[in-house]
Amino acid sequence: MTIVEERFGLACQRIQEISVLPETHEKFRPFFTEVAGYLAVMAEEYDWVAQGKHRAAELMELERHNEICFIDLAGKNYDTNYANPVWAVEKLGQEYGRLLCALSAELHSLPAYVYEQDLEAVTIRMELFLEIYSAFFCAWQEEKGIPPYGQLKDIYYWFASDYMEPILEQSVSQGVDWEQDFAVRILEESDLADLRYLFYYGEYIADDQWRTAEHLNSLPEEKIQKIADTIAEGFCRGFVLAGKSLDKKKSVGIRYPLGFERVVRALIGRFRGMGLEPVISRAPASFLAGRRVYKNGFFGASVNRQFEYDHENDQALYLDRKFMHHKLECCKNAWEACREKGSVYAGPAVIECFGETPFAPKHTEQRLTLSDKQRALSVEYQSRAGVLATEYMDPEERSFTIIAFPVPGIGEAYPEIFDEILKINTMDQKAYGAIQQRLIDALDKAAWVRVRGMGENVTDLKIMLRRLEDPERETNFENCLADVNIPVGEVFTSPQLAGTQGLLHVSRVYLNGMEYRDLKITFRDGMVTDYSCANFASSQEGRELLREQVMFRHETLPLGEFAIGTNTLAYVTAEKYGIQDKMPILIAEKTGPHFALGDTCYSHEEDRMTYNPDGKAIVARDNEVSARRKEDPAGAYFNCHTDITIPYDELGELTAVAGDETECVIIKDGRFVLEGTEELNAAFYRG
Q1: Starting from the edge strand earliest in sequence, which strands make up the sheet with 474-475, in order?
Q2: Coil, strand or helix: which one is 663?
Q3: Which partner from 30, 299, 415, 550 sits 20 to 30 angstroms from 597, CA to CA?
Q4: How far apart are CA 348 and CA 201, in angstroms?
C-alpha cells in the first residue's frame, strides 16, 4: 500500500465517523454531517470506478451514479446546500458561513478526480475537510466553543499554498502533454454508438450532451469528416498565412463539449496524419485550479452556473502578495518541467457550443468578493503568468482555430439549425475575400471611422486608424477568411487609441457564458472610462458584474480591435430561428461591426509581418499600449479579448472619413451601401 492509499483509507474512516455523529458546536453539526456524507459517497464512488464497474454498468446505473455525484447542486437542492453562500451565511454567519461554503464548493470538484482516479487530489481535499473539522472538534472538547475564524482561515491559506505547486504542475502538464491521455482513451476505446461512454468522464451529463451525441451519430460519415476537415484545414491555414512552420510541432490541443466525440475522433485522425498528437485536458473542476463559468478544456453540462458564479472569487480567502509570488514561482517551476513538450505544442483547436439558456447571474451579497488590493494582485498575477507562458510556448510559433455548433437546448429546430450552422461554417472563402477587399480598399483611405446606432441604440463612436506610409504596399485591415477564426466574414484592425472616443451601446449581448442587457461602454483616447448594464436593479451591482466578467478586474482596458462583420447569412439565420441572444461571440462578431476590449488580435505577435491575400502588409498590428511590450511586457498585455457586436438591426451608420473630411458611407440603416458589397445584402431578402 502506498502512502497516499494509506492516507486515503484513514481519511475515509474518519469521515464515515463524522457523517454519523459530528462532535462540534450544535450550530455547525448539520454542515459537517452533510459534507461528510457527501465525501463518504465520493469515497465509495472512487472504489466503484477503481474496480472498473462503471465500464460494465448498465445505462440506468450510470445515470444514477452521475446523479449522486452532482445532485447536491442541482435545481432547488442548491438553495439549501452549504455550497450556496446565501444558505451558508444564513445558517453559519458571515465569516464562518463564507469560509465553510468555499470549503464545500472545493470539495464538489471531487467527481472529476474520482473518475480520473487521481487519488492524491481526492485525498488532500478530504484532509482539508478533516483539518477544518479537527479545529471545531478541539474547540468543542476544550471549551464547548468554536475555533477562532483566523485559525480556520490560516488552515485554508496553507492548504492553498502547500498544494499550489502540484495543482499548477498538473494544470500545465495536462495542457501540453499528450501522454496524459484520460480523454483520448475514452474516445479511442469506446463504442461511440453506445452512449454510456459519456458517463466515463466524471462530468455532469444532461440532455444537451446526450442529444448532441445522438444527433452526431445520426449523421453520415462524410458530414462528420467535413466538420473535422474544416477544423484541421483552418488550423493549418493559420500557420501558412502567418508564415509559421508546423513541421517541428508534435502536438495539438483539442477542446470540446461532451457529445462531440464522433467529430473529435475524426479530428484526431486528421491531426495524426499531420504528425500531431492530441492533447485533451479537462476544464478546471476545482476553484483553486481556476474553475469559472466559462469553460476551457473538455466539459460536460454545468449542473448549476450560479454555483460557479458564486465561487469565482473564493481566492479572497487566501490571496495576498506573498501568495501571489509563491504562485508565480510554482507556475514557473511547472513550465520548466514541461519545457520540452511546451516547445512542440502547436496550439489549440477549439469546438465551442451554444444554444443553452443564456445565464444571467443573481447578485448575492453573501458571496466572497475580492478587495481592491486583491483585484490588483489578481490582475498582476494574470499579466505576469501570461508573459511567463510565452517564454515556454512562443506565440510566434503557435496558432489556433475555433469553430462553434449549437446544442439541442437551442430549440425544437435543433437539427435544422445545426445544418444551417454547418453551411455557415463552410462557406465559400473566395467570394467573401473579394467583397471584403472592397471594404478594405475604402477603409484604407480613411483617417477614422464613425459608427452610430439607430432606434434605441445610442452608439456614437469615433475610431481612429493608423496612417499608412505606403498605401500601395500597406493596409490597416486583415481580410479574415475562416482560418483560425471560423466562420468566414470579417475585416479587422487594431485601432489607434489617441482620438478614439465615444459610447458603445448594445441592447442585448451574450459574452463569455453570460447575458448582458443594455450594455454601455464609454471610451476616451481608446481606453474604457465607464461601463454599465441593466442586469440588476442596482447600477452598482451591474458595474461589479462587468468589472469581474468583462473587464477581468482591470481598472480600464483598451479598444484592442475594431472590425466589420460581413456574414449576413449568419445574422439572417439567427433572426429566422429567434436565436440572436444565443449566438456565440465567434459567430455573432461576424453579424455586424464589433469592438474588442483588451489585447489586439496580434497579441504577442506584433513583430511578425502578416500579409493579406493581395500581398499587402498588415501594418496595424499594435496600439500605444502594446507598443510598450519590450520595456514593460506585463503592462503591455491584459490577457483578455472580448468582442462586443452591434447587430445590423441596431446599426444606423458606419462611415469611413478621410483626412480631408471626405466621407464614404459603408453601411446605412443596417445595409451595405458601398459599391461592390451589395451582394452581402442578398441574405436579407431570401425567403
Answers
A1: 474-475, 617-618, 610-611
A2: strand
A3: 299
A4: 20
Q: Whole-model pTM? A: 0.89
Return the number of other C-beta atoms located less than 10 Å from residue 484's C-beta.
Answer: 20
Residue 29 has a CB neighbour count (10 Å cut-off) of 16
Cα–Cα distance between 478 and 611 in angstroms, integer?
Answer: 8
Alpha carbons within 13 A on the beta-carbon side of 450: 13
Per-residue model confidence as pLDDT tens digits over 332-367: 999 999 999 999 999 999 999 999 887 888 888 999
Question: What pLDDT is recorded for position 589?
Answer: 87
The H or E element containing residue 358 is none
Rg, C-alpha atoms of the chain: 26
Q: Which residue has the cell 469611413?
A: 656
| pLDDT value of position 411 | 92
Q: Stretch 212-217: mean pLDDT, rounded?
A: 97
Q: Which of 434, 435, 440, 324 is nearest to 374 (CA)?
A: 324
C-alpha 302: how far from its chain's center? 13
For residues 284 and 174, the answer to whether their CB atoms sit within 8 Å is: no
CB atoms within 10 A of CB 682: 11
Report residue 151's pLDDT band, with 50, 70 and 90 as the boundaries.
very high
Q: Could you say which DSSP state residue 77 is in?
A: G
C-alpha to C-alpha distance for 81 and 372, rounded to whole angstroms: 29
pLDDT at residue 198 tops 70 = yes
Tens of pLDDT, residues 589-619: 888 899 999 999 888 888 888 888 888 999 9
Which strand (E) or helix (H) includes residue 338? none
3-state secondary structure 198-251: HHHCCCCCCHHHHHHHHHHHHCCHHHHHHHHHHHHHHHHHHHHHCCCCCCCCCE
CB contact at 8 A, 528 and 521: yes
Q: Vertex 577, ends 575 and 578: CA angle to 5°?
A: 60
CA distance 387 to 368: 28
Enter the C-alpha cell of residue 549: 466578467
What cell does 460 get?
456614437
SS3 of residue 546 by DSSP? helix
Q: Which three cell numbers stand for residue 619?
A: 501594418
Residues 367-405 pLDDT 10s: 999 999 999 999 899 889 988 999 999 888 999 999 999
